[in-house]
Description:
Elements: H1 4-8, H2 35-49, H3 51-61, E1 66-70, H4 82-100, E2 104-106, E3 110-111, H5 116-128, H6 138-162, E4 173-174, H7 178-194, E5 197-207, E6 212-214, E7 219-237, E8 246-251, E9 262-265, E10 271-279, E11 294-298, H8 302-308, E12 311-320, E13 326-328, E14 341-346, E15 359-361, H9 367-375, H10 417-428, E16 431-444, E17 452-461, H11 477-487, E18 489-491, H12 495-505, E19 509-510, E20 512-513, E21 524-526, H13 536-549, H14 552-556, H15 560-563, E22 571-573, E23 577-578, H16 580-585, H17 587-591, E24 604-608, H18 615-627, E25 634-638, E26 641-642, H19 659-665, H20 668-677, E27 684-685, H21 688-711, H22 728-749, H23 754-782, H24 788-808, H25 813-823, H26 845-870, E28 883-886, H27 889-893, H28 900-904, E29 910-913, E30 927-930, E31 937-938, E32 945-946, H29 960-972
Parallel strand pairs: 1-2, 1-24, 3-4, 8-11, 9-14, 18-25, 24-25, 26-27, 28-29
Antiparallel strand pairs: 5-6, 5-17, 7-8, 7-13, 7-16, 9-15, 10-11, 10-12, 13-14, 17-19, 20-23, 21-22, 28-30, 31-32
Helix pairs in contact: 2-25, 4-20, 7-13, 11-12, 11-18, 19-20, 20-21, 20-23, 21-23, 21-24, 21-25, 22-23, 22-24, 22-26, 23-24, 24-25
Amino acid sequence: MADDADKSSVQVKEGRDYRETVFLPDTPFPMRAGLPQKEPQILAKWAELDLYNAIRAERQRAGAPLFVLHDGPPYANGAIHIGHALQKTLKDFVVRSRFLLGFDVDYVPGWDCHGLPIEWQIEKELKEKGRRKDDVSKAEFRTLCRDYAGKWIDVQRDGFKRLGVLGDWPNRYATMDYSSEAAIVAEFHKFVASGQLYRGSKPVMWSPVERTALADAEVEYHDHVSPTIWVKFPVVEGSDAARGASVVIWTTTPWTIPANRAVSYNEAIDYAVYQVEAMEEGLEFEPWAKPGDRLIVAEKLSDEVFKAAKIAKARRVEKVDCQGMVLEHPLAALDTHYAFQVPMLAGDHVTEDAGTGFVHTAPGHGADDYLVWLAHGHREIPDTVDPDGAYYPHVPLFAGLKVLETEGKKAGKFGPANPAVMEKLIEAGRLLARGRMEHSYPHSWRSKAPVIFRNTPQWFIRMDEPVNTAELGGRTLREVALESIEATTFFPAAGKNRIRSMVESRPDWLISRQRAWGAPLAMFVDKETNQPLHDPEVDKRIVDAIRAEGADAWFNRPDSDFLGQHDPQRFEKVEDILDVWFDSGSTHAFTLENRAHTHWPADLYLEGSDQHRGWFQSSLLESSGTRGRAPYDAILTHGFTMDENGEKMSKSKGNTVDPETVIRESGAEIIRLWAAMIDYADDSRIGKTILQTTSDAYRKLRNTVRYMLGALADYSPDEAVELAEMPPLERFILHRLYELDAQVRAAYEGYLFQDVIRPLTEFCQNELSSLFFDIRRDALYCDQPSSVRRRAARTVMEAVFERLTAWLGPLIPFTMEEAWLTRYPDAHSNGMRVIPETPAEWRNDAEAARWAKVQQVTSVVTGALEVERREKRMGAALEAAPVVHVADPGLLAAFEGLDAAEVFRTSQATLMAGEGPGFRLSEVPGVSVEPLRAEGRKCARSWRILPEVGSDPRYPDLSLRDAEAVAAWDAARA
């Protein structure tokens, strides 16, 4: 059939111009979307309508069930990036799809405002003005932080709204709001009251650059090159074979040697004494080992140790039992401070995977070291490194030396501590070997600088002590959290194992930070008992003051304002701030509770997969510790955004994708369509090529909608055709709508947005554009308006349009809004609609089976005509009158009641039973096509070539069908 342009030029030089009689598509819906200009206009209409609240009000009037999506707060620092865009778009998919499914949806966007990144930015701005942080009062500093966060909340909010994200924006939450800070402190007081809080001195991950402790969720691992050393600890007590020998340890942290208090071994590992007999020759340096040395190492690792020490030959003397063995500190000969006995401690954490089979144990600088030290009855934990990562003045030989540089261009690099320790070990004759090793090492996720384990007094929430509250009922926090994980639904399901393994092995929750910008650990500690004061009246005064004045009230007001009858001299005021993960983990308390038209727990939390150790987990622990269950029923996670090559995005690489640029050049709809088309559960790629492919897919969808709008011009329900009167093709399309309705509902229920867009895109391309529209174009353009065939096609198009605009509305809402209001200018927003019901009687498996067979035969006809066009023996398909031989009776029967020429888009066609000559396709056996040319004259209106053209003397250049149609057209205008 000729295309639109062909039809618009229909005329006969010596006859009538029939263009005005052809019913061409007519719509103001433009082919070129102009999204960057159109989208802001639609956003303005949504704002005028207050669309989000308008939908909620309508759903509530209808008694709709409530669905709560609780927003994981992005950090208020900088403009939105493509990761933000993906996440907020996915959340909008959830909100809009739940509205579509008939729910009332509560979604309050929020922001995380406290923490180090903002503190750093303010410190940087102060430096640029010639001021130091220490010269600024805490109150002024916090005000600067608050203003900074507020500025970026506004910027990010505008960016999210530009993406088309619906939510209760006027009532957004922020962790720095006075009411939020008060609620966070009130949640903290619950842990104090239940006895789950304690102060402990233990090694924690410490950032010298940031001068604060870090929780597990604030640490990420990167490859890092560290010095490695093999150190000899002489045996002072042990078996006869062990005396005169040295236990060899291996470590990647030479700076921890001054803090050594023990050496750990594993009773399941075989150890032996080896005597050095020969060294490697031809070396450019003199090795530290020499013949006659006696070394104790794990037998399995002996060869690796000897290789590192350049030992050519060593004789195994005998197996050795490490129990009860006592060693000398390797620095004992240089300073009496180190002249203490070093015990051997049995521990399961010791392995023979690498090193020497022994673990140098510094209980102030390692979690395993600390635990094995306590397990053997030791209590005193040495303090060797200060908050700046430098040795304390009382550490002999190394006082003041830094482990890590904390300022200037070298910040985060190794300081002089490691080389100084190695030099002293050489001086003492205790260094056996040294080297360098690249390995995975913990870094602060904010500063990107390496961290260290450092012993320091901090506040913790217990994970493994029974809690006798009504909510926990004697269970431990870990037990409750693990039970809650089992009760939670995960999308994808693998998320359950990930967070479970983290909670199973995590240490007590470190919640204190030594910084300024955050919600305080607002409590007093009794100086006599060293226990937190728990007085409900004191707690109430604290919370009320913070609610009225913000967290500044805690730092600015005198202690007596809070303590009431208690003696201020007896109590220590804690001025640490809370871990920001405690802040965000408490958001459910002030967003979902004590608000109208919401409920606790949330139906869904949705964030990136890294939040299994972040917000998902902190929310789980906070809620489990205060309410005895998780604050959510389900968790959905998405992967990270990568560049087109699957590499991590980085400004330095120049491979980032700026959502604002994409919106400015192509429109937010393209980002949304990309987000819908990816498998968000995995890491997702994006870049110019991918966005161009997405734009191409968008144009196809838009043109499908545009064609329907044009074909439905002036359509009235009065011309609708009942199902029983519909031709087979229309019944098949309705069947496909029935199938798609179930698919779309199930996909939206399961948050499988890819399973919405991909079937609908394929439906638009395959069943609509390539089949339904293509076959029915002639009827739509050239049949009389009263024609059952034309009316049926338009009736089905109306059903398709009604559903397609609803189904795609959550994913590409701008375009579906434009399409809906083009067809119904006086209607409510498309976003207010509930998914249309699809009649069960539309299901028609027989028609589905028929059209599968029809399309098999059609593919052979199409292939034959393509050969004819390629060989220039034929032009348009309307020049053809194929003879189609069909040997399979089932395939032939499929054409019963169909016009084969109409199906093949040719002027004429003949179906013949049995085998025959002609073109074949191997994948469709038993079908062959003779591509004959059509006989007759060309109709001046429809361009079909038929023998009947000219049969009607009124219109000598038209087919009979076209002659009747024009006659009716003329009569209507007479």
